[in-house]
Every structure is written in structure tokens, then in C-alpha cells.
């Protein structure tokens, strides 16, 4: 031991002593996003720590879509005296959103500069998550994010389909669609889910409904060659309803219908005219009540064409359709007899809907139902600054996008949906809460079963 001490003294005598600096190197910022895996309608908490006090930073979100497009959102922040930025508690001073917006990094997403025009972000494969890369950049950055190196990043997953939800392709009795079943033995209430005139099979809302405890059938009702008459077409919808109702994991007398745009027309049409199926409740988002008897969907879509002189094209070459539909309010023969509705119905509309006159139609529906004595079944919500496409919460807002009506249009147009980003996004969050509350009240008699991530 003594020899080792003498060796250490000798070595120290030959080498100059290096003094430790009293200044420690700057700490790296720490970014936390909680939860990193969640349903799309759940909030996340974004927190940045270990920043120098008073540091300007940019919080940035980047998503690579299934269509190979990049979407981004960002906010400009300044760290507090403790070197912390909390997105939920601090103000964004610029970016794609401003103010105190805990979910601004998601709802304000837009295509990155240089992207294709008229894009709309929609999930196709609900069996995989939407991935968002949340990053922190030094300074207040407005462009060129992908050419810069972030201080730190976190990848988060946003799911429409909760763990345990089953996805089943449906090709039964001529009906095409996808059935989503919540985890657990059930039985559960059921939902028939219908989208609008763009056609195709859109699954993400049904997957989310199943994640909240509802067996939901997303239905494709445009790509059928065998539905040659209004009668056959109507039976197609009734059959789809029956498929849900007869499922062993569904409570037979607790099946509702949810539709958006043209889907809401079909929803109301079933509630008014069907003597075979009796929905427990209906939700109509951004719809109208123009559906003459003995007309096919294609004929209903073509009805406004008689007023094609009322089609407007704005300064951005966006097509505005609402005035073509508005004229139909003066034609009683083209309206449904909403006085025959005998189940609770919720109308969800935006005051700035530029596609259909949803607000005016809701007013007319209320007058007709009150006159018929069934106005007590009607609930309405109207959102200012909100457009046509009222999606699940925190979905990006699209004031206009490319659109081609399934089976009707020969070319794609840039269609104006309406709405302003901030109020529209607020409306989507509130509307989803009201939709779930309405379903809970009408389809569940006890506390809602809810799948959690």
C-alpha cells in the first residue's frame, strides 16, 4: 500500500494538476409528452424543462400521412424563470396557433409549405396509429424545420382503435362495410355510421366509437351496382341496421345512427320512412332534410343541379354549393316529413357551413317538428365560425379541399367547406363531447363501458 502511495506522489509531481471548472456545461432540454400513446380524442401534456430562463423556443409537431404528405404545426414560446415551457399553461406568441392552447400542436396542423393543394388529412388504416414527432427548436422558427436539428424530440402515437377493439370486414346480405366491436363480453349498444358524398369506406369514426363502448358499423353505400332503385337502396340501409341489431354482442333495442353530410340525410330518411327498423336515437352532423320520396341517393345528390345557376366560385376558385341547396327550402315536396320522427335526434351544425345551409335547415326542421308535436325529441347545437366538416376532436381544420362526388362528378373541384381554424377546432372538441353524452343518455342506462389505452 505504501508503495502505491509513493507511486501516486511521483506521478502527480511529473503531471500538472487540472483544476475542475466551477461552471458546469449547459443541461440539455428535457421534453416530455404524456401520454405518448393515446386515443385521438384524449389530450396530451407537453412540457419542456432544463431550458435557460427566458429562452425563446419553438414547439413543433410533424406528421407523415398515409398519402405521403407532411403536415406540421408549431407554436412560439418563451421559457419561464425556472427554464420551463408548459404548452397547457403558457402562451404561444406565434406560429400556427396563438394563446394558451394545450392541443394546438395537433388541431392547427397544416400541409408543410410546397405541398400539393387541396389536401385533407384522414386516417385510412385504423389498425396503425397516427405518428406525430414533437420537437423543440431553439429560437422562434417559422420555416425550414426539416433542415434544422431540434434540441430534443419525442414520438407519440394517436389511435382511433383502442386495445382489444375488434375489426371485422362485413360482406353480408349484400352489405359492405367494417364492424368494430369493443373489448369485453358485452352486450353493447350499436351504431350505424355513415359518411358523405365522397364515397368509399371511412372507418376511423367507427373505430373511435367502438373505443368508447359501441359496436359500430362503418358502411360503404356508394359502390354498389345492384342498387338500381330507391326501394332496393332503402332496403340496403335497413339490412345494414339489422346486421348490427342481430349481432350477438349488441343490445337489440339500443341501436342508433350517426351520419355526416349526405350520411345525415340518409340517417334522417331512415328515421322518417322506415317501418322495419326503429333507431333508438339519431345524430345528424352538417346535414339537411332534402330527400324526396322514391328517389335514389344519386338523384338526391343531383337535385341541387337544377339550381346550378346559384353555384358560386369565390376569389380562390373554391366552389360554394350552399346556395344551390338553400333554394330547396322553398320546395316542400323535396323535404322529408320530419314530423314522423319518433326517436331522439341531435343536429350538430356549423354557422359558417358553405357546403349546405345546415343552420337554415335546422331551423326549418325545428319548425316542422314543433308543428307536428314531436319537437321535444329534437336537440340542436350550432357553432359560430364552424364549417361543414365537423370531425372528431383535434383533427385539422380544412376550409377547402379537393372533392369529387362519388358516382356523379366527372372531375375534382376545390370545394369550400367553411369555418375558421380556431372556432372550428373548438367546435369539434365540444361537439364530440356532446355526441358521446347524447349516446350515453340514449343508449346506455348505466355508466358507459369505455375502453382505455
Short description:
This protein is 23% helix and 26% strand.
Question: Would you give an account of this structure?
Answer:
This protein has helices spanning 2-14, 104-107, 204-211, 230-245, 262-273, 297-302, 322-326, 358-372, 421-443, and strands spanning 30-34, 37-39, 45-49, 56-64, 70-78, 85-86, 110-111, 130-138, 152-159, 166-172, 175-181, 188-194, 215-220, 250-260, 282-285, 312-313, 319-320, 345-350, 378-383, 400-403, 413-416. By secondary structure, the chain is an alpha/beta fold. The protein has an eight-stranded mixed β-sheet, with helices on both faces. The protein has a six-stranded mixed β-sheet with strand order 2-9-8-4-5-7. The protein has a three-stranded antiparallel β-sheet with strand order 1-3-6, with no helix packed on it. The radius of gyration is 27 Å and the shape is globular. Helix content is 23%, strand content 26%. The protein contains nine helices and 21 strands.
Which stretches are poorly predicted, pLDDT < 50 over at least 5 residues? 1-25, 447-453
Roughly how much helix do the residues carry, as a percent range? 10-25%
How many E strands? 21
What structural category arises from helix and sheet content? alpha/beta
Order of helices and strands: HEEEEEEHEEEEEEHEHEHEHEEHEHEEEH
List its traits.
single chain, 453 residues, alpha/beta, eight-stranded mixed sheet, six-stranded mixed sheet, 9 helices, 21 strands, globular, disordered N terminus, disordered C terminus
Amino acid at each position: 500500500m505504501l508503495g502505491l502511495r509513493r507511486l501516486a506522489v511521483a506521478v502527480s509531481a511529473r503531471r500538472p494538476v487540472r483544476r475542475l471548472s466551477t461552471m458546469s456545461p449547459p443541461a440539455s432540454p428535457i421534453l416530455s409528452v404524456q401520454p405518448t400513446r393515446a386515443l385521438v380524442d384524449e389530450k396530451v401534456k407537453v412540457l419542456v424543462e432544463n431550458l435557460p430562463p427566458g429562452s425563446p423556443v419553438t414547439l413543433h409537431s410533424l406528421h407523415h400521412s398515409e398519402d405521403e404528405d407532411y403536415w406540421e404545426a408549431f407554436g412560439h414560446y418563451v421559457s419561464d424563470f425556472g427554464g420551463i415551457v408548459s404548452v397547457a399553461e403558457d402562451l404561444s406568441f406565434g406560429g400556427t396557433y396563438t394563446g394558451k392552447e394545450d392541443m394546438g400542436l395537433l388541431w392547427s396542423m397544416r400541409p408543410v409549405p410546397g405541398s400539393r393543394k387541396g389536401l385533407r388529412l384522414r386516417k385510412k388504416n385504423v389498425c396503425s396509429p397516427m405518428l406525430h414527432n414533437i420537437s423543440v427548436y431553439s429560437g422562434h422558427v417559422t420555416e425550414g424545420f426539416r433542415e434544422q436539428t431540434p434540441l430534443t424530440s419525442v414520438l407519440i402515437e394517436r389511435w382511433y382503435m383502442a386495445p382489444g377493439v375488434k375489426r371485422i370486414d362485413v360482406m353480408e346480405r349484400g352489405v359492405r362495410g367494417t364492424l368494430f366491436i369493443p373489448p369485453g363480453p358485452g352486450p353493447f349498444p350499436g351504431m350505424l355510421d355513415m359518411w358523405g358524398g365522397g364515397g368509399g369506406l371511412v372507418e376511423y369514426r367507427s373505430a373511435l366509437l367502438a373505443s368508447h363502448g359501441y359496436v359500430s358499423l362503418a358502411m360503404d353505400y356508394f359502390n354498389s351496382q345492384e342498387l338500381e332503385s330507391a326501394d332496393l337502396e332503402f332496403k340496403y340501409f335497413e339490412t345494414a341496421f339489422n346486421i348490427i341489431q342481430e349481432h350477438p354482442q349488441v343490445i337489440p333495442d339500443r341501436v342508433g345512427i350517426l351520419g355526416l353530410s349526405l350520411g345525415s340525410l340518409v340517417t334522417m330518411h331512415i328515421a322518417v320512412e322506415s317501418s322495419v327498423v326503429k333507431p333508438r336515437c339519431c345524430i345528424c352532423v352538417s346535414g339537411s332534410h332534402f330527400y324526396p320520396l322514391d328517389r335514389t341517393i344519386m338523384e338526391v345528390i343531383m337535385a341541387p343541379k337544377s339550381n346550378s345557376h346559384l353555384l358560386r366560385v369565390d376569389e380562390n376558385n373554391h366552389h360554394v354549393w350552399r346556395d344551390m341547396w338553400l333554394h330547396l327550402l322553398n320546395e316542400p315536396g323535396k323535404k322529408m316529413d320530419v314530423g314522423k320522427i319518433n326517436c331522439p335526434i341531435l343536429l350538430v351544425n356549423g354557422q359558417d357551413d358553405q357546403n349546405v345551409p345546415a343552420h337554415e335547415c335546422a331551423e326549418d326542421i325545428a319548425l316542422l317538428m314543433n308543428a307536428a308535436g314531436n319537437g321535444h325529441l329534437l336537440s340542436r347545437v350550432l357553432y359560430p365560425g364552424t364549417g361543414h366538416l365537423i370531425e372528431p376532436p383535434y383533427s385539422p381544420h380544412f376550409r377547402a379541399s379537393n372533392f369529387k362526388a362519388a358516382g356523379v362528378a366527372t372531375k375534382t373541384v376545390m370545394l369550400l367547406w367553411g369555418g375558421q381554424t380556431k372556432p372550428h377546432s373548438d367546435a369539434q372538441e365540444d361537439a364530440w363531447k356532446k355526441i358521446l353524452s347524447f349516446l350515453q343518455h340514449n343508449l346506455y342506462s348505466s355508466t358507459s363501458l369505455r375502453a382505455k389505452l
